[in-house]
Description:
A: 8-stranded antiparallel β-sheet, 10 helices
Amino acid sequence: MSAPAITPYRSPQAVGRDGFAQLVRAEWTKLRTVRGWVIGLFLVVVLTDLMGLFAAGSSHTACITGPGRAPRTGRACAVTMPTGPGGQAVTDNYYLAGQSLAGNGSLTARVTSLTTEQASGIGPNPVASLKPGPVPWAKAGIILTASTRPGAAYAAVLVTPDHGVRMQYDYTGDVAGLPGRVSAAQPRWLRLTRAGAVVTGYDSADGRHWTRVGQVRLAGLPSSVRAGLFTTAPGWQTTSSSFGGSEGDGGPSQATATIDQVSRSGPWAGRGWPGTAVGGANLPTVGVHQAGGQFTIVGSGDIAPSSPSNGARAQTIEQHLVGVFAGLIVAIVIGVMFMTAEYRRGLIRITLAASPGRGRVLVAKALVAAAVMFVAGLVAVIIAVLGGIAVVHSQFGYVYPVTTLTAIRVVAGTALLIAVVAVLAVALGAILRRTAAAVTVGIVAVVLPYVIGIGSVLPIGVAQWLLRVSPAAGFAIEQSIPAYSQVSNSYAPAFGYYPLAPWAGFAVLCGWVALAFALAVVLIRRRDA
Amino acid sequence: MKAALAAEWTKQRTVTVTGWLLLAAAVVTGLLSAAAAAAARCPAAGCGGDPARVSLAGVEAGQAAVAILAVLAISGEYTSGMIRTTLVAMPRRTSVLAAKAIVVAGLTLVAGAVGVAGSLLAGRLLLPGRGFTAGHGFAPLSLADGPVLRAAAGSVLYLMLIGLLSLGVATAVREPAVAIGAVLALLYLFPLVAHVAASQQWYRHVEQAGPMTAGLAIQATTGLPGLPIQPWAGLGVLAAWAAAALLAGGLVLRLRDA
């Protein structure tokens, strides 16, 4: 007798697929169905923008429009800066003894001395307060410029007190030539030649043996350009940091240069070298004095990219992003809870039963958290930047212009930063499993190094080191104006200058996140759920 | 009340995490202070440094451990459901919160005192080698010195008040992640907002209002006239924050179902 064949029961339902897409969908469902987390996502946007707008609104400052005048506010304080060929804000302020050159040609001159003085920034008579002082990046030499309108394209070879001969062009370009300080015993010959839009700079220590310093193509150079001898000296600034803030002191500088042996070739117009204070006279003492073949030119100002500094009444776009720290704290809280809530409610056992590939579960979770935070962050950052700029402009303030590519990097990079930190939070939640501890570690790792770095307790070197190795290095992605080695400034973290390049800093953060995530994957596989 | 205190003390004593967090608060404070002291430099006389503040810098990180301890003191009960047992045993909810506050304050005072003592010791040993010498106008750190004593004792009180502030916030919001996030946001966001405020006036207002920025004024021993807020007034601001948080927490605890 044989047993009757038993057909086991089979559900008529089609077999569900157990792919990665299903896993992501499951995690997305978990996230969007918890009301507190959805509110949290809105909170990311709201807090980021409210804090950013508060910061932009508090930038309303008074200014003193002239020596001995009362502080004023409003339109009288409007800050404007010329824009250079690269689209960046620049300083274009020097004394020029120049002529027109209508075609190809060259100009040669010898600089035999360059001395500098500093004036007090306060008080009714800055000239009376002039006294000798170091101005490392004072400039004297020959320049060829599209026009004397501030912000025009130019190329120049020049001597500096502390950085030797340089060829500089279009505000950001800077090439080193002969080193050493100029003096009567050690003069410097400089030469610029122009062929179409290409300008080449040479220097020489004896007027016979010439070395090419650099060559540049100046886009849109008209056929008739201004060229001649110039002098300028950037204002001096000292910053003393103390507890409870930093105090700055500063004022205008002036440089006096002696230039002779001027020779030229090509279609030059005119015989004399009339003086022009390009960008306005910073001090009443600027001017040119000619005796025989020798020119003495006094100049004040700078030809350089303008960079944010202490006390400047101008803002960078990333200053409107201070609210991102609030957004990050919310993102860390949500990211950690997204993971630890599974443990608290025992849901993790169901999750892992449904999808035994534990590493895959964690990846899906991180992916969902990152994607959601990226979108929320992007919305928040775009509103914060546009709103901040509108508020600052409504108060006659100035926002440093940036190229479209830089703006995209700052905005998308900051949203990416929030997304990556959310992944870190998920990983910390999986490693520590304890909500409060994971949230604290996340915030202390990401936000605290920055708080300490911009505070004045530590010396600048240590603050820079902190922002090089800690996860807070990632905030470098927000820096829109680079530090220029040819501009004297206090490039401290407190003034928005990070020690690492934007993507390098972001890579440091990503390294930390990768490390935490790898540890989380190892632990979730090894430990009992 | 005595029974409530005993109950809270037993709860804190018998949870392993309390010991670890107290240890963490003391060790993190001491280690980071030592690191700050080792990193500080005073190359010449009039370098503008504040040796007491440098050697107490670890408090900025150590307070995070104190905050977790205080948050868990109440949130832990909500996560495990213990709060219902607690409130059945002690129906006077205000007494429960008061007992918790006293126990948290006592524990953080001890941990804070150890951490601050370690910090000062590290500062006393390390700072003279970093240029903070008598020749540059700095006496070695000593508790016999009035301002240093105030900075040290004030830092211990500061940590205690941070604990009370965290307890109050956690009582109001219950969820530990949200509570700790809110506390750390309150502490760390004010200095960031103050930093981007372009006008000096706003900068001072924000520094005066923030619980951490105002409270840490207690550590200042040099340049007092230029501070946005004076030491004891600053600690008073933090005390007001803590009192407000406890009040809000107490009200919510009384009015809401557990």
